Predict the 3D structure of the following.
Amino acid sequence: MKQSDNLLTIIKELEEEAKHVDDEQIQGLIQAICEANRIFVVGVGRSGFVGRAFSNRLMHLGFTVYFIGEPTTPSIQEGDLLIIGSGSGETSGMVNIAKKAASLGVKIATLTIYPENSIGRMADYIIKIPGVSAGMNGNQNVGTIQPNGSSFEQLSWLVYDTMIVDLIKIKNQTQEQLNARHANLE
């Protein structure tokens, strides 16, 4: 067997970047998830794929969760939590969703590279993820073999999974309980 040098390099890059993710920010969002009436998750592109996976895991834990854009997503209301994955923090559709949620008194959380940008300025909870977004002109992904945005999406997935591990403990869930909520019409 020959090892994949690219794979090992990516893992090393992610390990270094993960050291810059603040656990206090993660714990703050975990608490917000536990306190929310319902959870709404949104992201576009690859961030959307990651958000969908997180929504799925929250459902396995028994949370009432919706991924925005699906036809069965109800209206969001005060007492709900909106989680936005946006590397740039400036994706126009995501900014509009954040504005609407804020006008309704909804708590907003974001995973982003740029907390100082539009979505971060509206957010009640921020998890800053290192990286470079393809949506931010002029930036170059220095120090990585990956295209812009890849490390953000990968670290977002890992941060979401980190929260799931903690939420399993908080909700005192067993793997059997999670499995019972897993899709069975596949």
Summary: The chain has a mean pLDDT of 93. The helical segments are 5-18, 23-35, 45-60, 92-103, 118-122, 150-170, 175-180. The two ends are 34 Å apart (CA to CA). Residues 150-170 form the longest helix (21 residues).
